[in-house]
Task: inverse folding
């Protein structure tokens, strides 16, 4: 017995494939399907170049890229109202001093771009607080956004009043004799609109004080050594601070940004000599620095990227691109596994016959009688939501039809005269199986393989859509699941950019396989062959 | 072996499959990690209280006893205690909710199936008599297209345009987007009926769109096979009109296949309704099943009861298809050969 592929066999196969391709290239539907499929494979292969965001960025716990349900950027060309919507913008703003610093404060520029204020109370000669005002402006020329974010960081040193302590030998405790080298400082941030209204959006007391009473006087001095602020306007507390209801942060932001023009962020830094338990630091010792980085002001866009964002603020285009690889992987892997199982069971059953055949066919009967989708859901709920498990169970429920078909083919092939003659000339069972039976199975298996893929893709998308998919992978079904969960097709959002692309992608990918399968079926199935 | 023996064998196999499914269903939940009532316990509870909770859900007994009780419970179809058990979520008997949910689901599916068959078969007949025309090609194209189109996508599409879009542009809901009935329900029988019909229009239309092309293609292919037969030629040679040939001769011989197909497609529809119910927010058994299984602590009594109903329906209709095919088609009558 020789199973190695000889040169002659290879020649025959090359000829067959060439002939197949010749037939296929004349089939318009098949070529259309192939072109669509190649486009999807291209996207899947070069997904990191085609997508605009890395895969981690579209994971549902990652930070958002723009506002929730931001429209695609290009909708601006459709109508002036849409062009008025703000795109995702980040302003990197540098502070400029509004007034020349009062005596006692020296301003210098740090190496990394931060502004450093040196405070020396003795230069000013008074213990009264002195302030420096910093300004930075940006032009905002769009309709009001829903959410904005202010971000900057600061350092103050020394952080607190350094105590001068003396060990009291007789009373055995440290006695505070004075303080040195210190100052207290205070930061306040206002947002000034083009028509001059000033909104006190933040001060250092606000969070440390943990009372959100807008009338709290800044009576406290900072004890913080350094800190950073990253404040999103959608926190309810800010709305309360500015006199809105706790659920009205969007209304607040829209009120603030209701006019177009030059908006100014104003920072007020106030210094005064430090204080400790009633002992004021002597003027000559009251020194320190406060450094302030430039400010990053983010306008969360209502227009973003190629396909906007979903209900979690993530880029739809990138999710669409990453979804193609997973769909192809799951579809093809499940189809290959189930076709392989179908061939194995079909050939074994048809070839061996007897009790093996009977038991395998009863197993097929049982599996065909099961309510498939509910059982898949149970298996996923029990076995976990991983891509691998989804592939396995889709494959396990997909081979029954093929195995029946192959069994009947094998049964009829076994009666063929050339098989009989092979046996009578002394060929072994294995040889006949591989040499004579298997080549006749391949056309059926190929058609089945291609036509199984869309079923598997749709099944996976359905599972994801029902919320039973792998939560870590961005699939098309999951995009639609999140769209449903976050109201993407409710009248409030109407997010066509989030709803239709994944659905159409599933449809077109499946359609490409259906077309190819149709063409392959027409070529390899002699019953369907048309006369030319 | 005669017809009787064949019947007995098929029923026995069907019962065996049903037993396999419900046993699997039982063991899957037994094998899944953790006590199913664990999440109901709080640290402050006494032993007696914990015992009471376990008794309430019947997980305090040894597994074989639980199994026997489980089988008895399912076999009674929830008509006698323990009424399919107590739901972990609502703490009510599963039966109470199950039957009205099932009746609504069956209403949805029944109307969709009947509509799809009527529309699909008539289009199939129309197309078969006009083979090769543009209509024929386009119906084939629609058939291929619906094969590639996910069910939920068509439904989302319908929801988007016929509910949300029209609400946004015209300010009215021409179709409701959720639930079986309006709240509060209208007075009187006829208004209530109209109300339910109004709520069912969109889901049923979607289900029909998904499945009619399948029926059309099936009928077309069956009829095309039949139309090449000799007796059709004879009928034509007798001078019968095309209409009479189609309705009196051809259609008659594909009845068995169509009736069998109806029985075979019902199980798929029943489970497929899960998606429709989820998209349209219809509280049928499909949505209940998904809601009960996709949570961190699956609601076992509900899942077990609904899966039992699904399995019963699937197996019953497969069996029915077997019988109908044998009974309606004289060529495949069992025992006739011997």
Result:
């Amino acid at each position: 017995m020789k199973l190695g592929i000889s040169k002659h066999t290879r020649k025959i196969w090359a000829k067959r494939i060439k002939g197949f391709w010749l037939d296929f290239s004349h089939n318009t539907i098949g070529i259309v399907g192939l072109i669509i499929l190649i486009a999807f494979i291209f996207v899947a292969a070069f997904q990191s170049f085609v997508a605009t965001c890395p895969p981690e960025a579209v994971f549902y716990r990652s930070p958002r890229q723009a506002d929730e349900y931001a429209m695609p950027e290009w909708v601006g060309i459709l109508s002036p109202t849409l062009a008025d919507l703000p795109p995702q913008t980040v302003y990197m703003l540098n502070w400029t001093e509004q007034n020349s610093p009062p005596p006692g404060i020296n301003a210098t520029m740090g190496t990394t771009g931060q502004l450093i204020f040196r405070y020396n109370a003795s230069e000013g000669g008074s213990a009264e607080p002195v302030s420096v005002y910093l300004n930075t402006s940006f032009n905002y020329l769009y309709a009001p956004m829903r959410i904005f974010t202010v971000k900057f960081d600061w350092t103050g040193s020394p952080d607190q009043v350094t105590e001068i302590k003396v060990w009291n030998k007789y009373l055995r405790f440290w006695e505070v004799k004075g303080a040195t080298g210190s100052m207290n400082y205070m930061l306040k941030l206002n947002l000034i609109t083009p028509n001059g209204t000033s909104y006190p959006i933040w001060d250092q007391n606000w969070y440390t004080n943990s009372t959100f009473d807008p009338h709290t006087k800044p009576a406290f001095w900072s004890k913080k050594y350094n800190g950073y602020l990253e404040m999103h306007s959608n926190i309810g507390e800010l709305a309360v601070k500015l006199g809105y209801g706790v659920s009205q942060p969007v209304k607040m932001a829209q009120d603030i940004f209701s006019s177009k023009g030059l908006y100014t962020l104003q920072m007020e830094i106030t210094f005064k000599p430090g204080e400790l338990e009633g002992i004021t630091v002597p003027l000559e010792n009251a020194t320190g620095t406060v450094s302030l980085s430039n400010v990053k002001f983010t306008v969360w866009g209502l227009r973003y990227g190629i396909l906007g964002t979903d209900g979690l603020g993530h880029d739809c285009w990138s999710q669409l691109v990453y979804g193609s690889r997973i769909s192809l992987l799951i579809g093809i892997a499940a189809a290959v596994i189930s076709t392989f199982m179908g061939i194995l069971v079909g050939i074994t059953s048809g070839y061996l016959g007897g009790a093996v055949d009977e038991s395998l066919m009863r197993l097929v009967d049982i599996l065909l009688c099961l309510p498939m989708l509910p059982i898949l859901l149970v298996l996923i709920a029990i076995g976990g939501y991983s891509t691998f498990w989804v592939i396995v169970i889709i494959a396990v429920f997909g081979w029954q039809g093929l195995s029946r078909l192959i069994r009947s083919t094998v049964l009829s092939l076994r009666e063929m005269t050339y098989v009989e003659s092979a046996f009578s000339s002394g060929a072994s069972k294995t040889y006949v199986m591989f040499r004579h039976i298997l080549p006749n199975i391949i056309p059926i298996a190929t058609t089945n393989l291609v036509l199984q893929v869309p079923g598997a893709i749709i099944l996976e998308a359905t599972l994801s859509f029902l919320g039973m998919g792998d939560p870590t992978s961005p699939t098309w079904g999951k995009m639609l699941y999140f769209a449903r969960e976050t109201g993407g097709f409710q009248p409030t959002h109407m997010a066509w950019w989030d709803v239709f692309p994944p659905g159409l992608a599933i449809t077109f990918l499946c359609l490409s396989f259906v077309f190819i399968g149709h063409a392959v079926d027409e070529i390899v199935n002699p019953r369907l062959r048309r006369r030319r | 072996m005669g017809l009787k023996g064949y019947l007995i064998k098929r029923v026995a196999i069907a019962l065996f499959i049903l037993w396999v499914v419900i046993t699997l269903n039982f063991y899957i939940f037994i094998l899944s990690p953790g006590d199913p009532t664990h999440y109901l316990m709080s640290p402050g509870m006494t032993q007696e209280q914990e015992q009471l909770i376990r008794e309430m859900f019947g997980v305090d007994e040894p597994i074989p006893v639980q199994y026997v009780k489980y089988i008895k419970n399912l076999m009674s179809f929830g008509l006698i205690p323990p009424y399919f058990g107590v739901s972990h979520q609502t703490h009510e008997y599963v039966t109470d909710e199950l039957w009205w949910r099932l009746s609504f689901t069956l209403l949805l599916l029944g109307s969709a199936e009947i509509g799809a068959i009527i529309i699909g078969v008539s289009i199939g007949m129309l197309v078969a008599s006009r083979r090769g025309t543009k209509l024929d090609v386009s119906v084939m194209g629609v058939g291929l297209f619906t094969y590639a189109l996910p069910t939920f996508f068509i439904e989302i599409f319908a929801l988007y345009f016929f509910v949300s879009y029209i609400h946004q542009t015209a300010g009215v809901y021409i179709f409701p987007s959720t639930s079986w009935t309006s709240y509060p329900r209208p007075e009187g029988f006829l208004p209530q009926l109209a109300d339910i019909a109004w709520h069912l229009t969109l889901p049923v239309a979607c289900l029909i769109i998904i499945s009619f092309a399948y029926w059309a293609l099936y009928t077309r292919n069956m009829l095309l096979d039949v139309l090449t037969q000799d007796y059709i030629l004879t009928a034509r040679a007798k001078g019968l009109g095309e209409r009479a040939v189609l309705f009196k001769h051809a259609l008659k011989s594909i009845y068995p296949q169509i009736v069998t197909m109806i029985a075979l497609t019902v199980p798929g529809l029943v489970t497929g309704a899960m998606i429709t119910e989820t998209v349209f927010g219809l509280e049928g058994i499909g949505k209940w099943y998904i809601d009960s299984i996709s949570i961190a602590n699956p609601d076992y009594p509900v899942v077990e009861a609904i899966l039992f109903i699904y399995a019963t329906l699937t197996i019953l209709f497969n069996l029915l298809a077997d019988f109908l095919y044998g009974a309606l088609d004289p060529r495949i009558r069992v025992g006739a050969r011997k």
Remarks:
- The longest strand of chain A covers residues 261-273.
- Residues 214-218 of chain A have pLDDT under 50 and may be disordered.
- The radius of gyration of chain A is 36 Å.
- DSSP finds 17 helices and 16 strands in chain A.
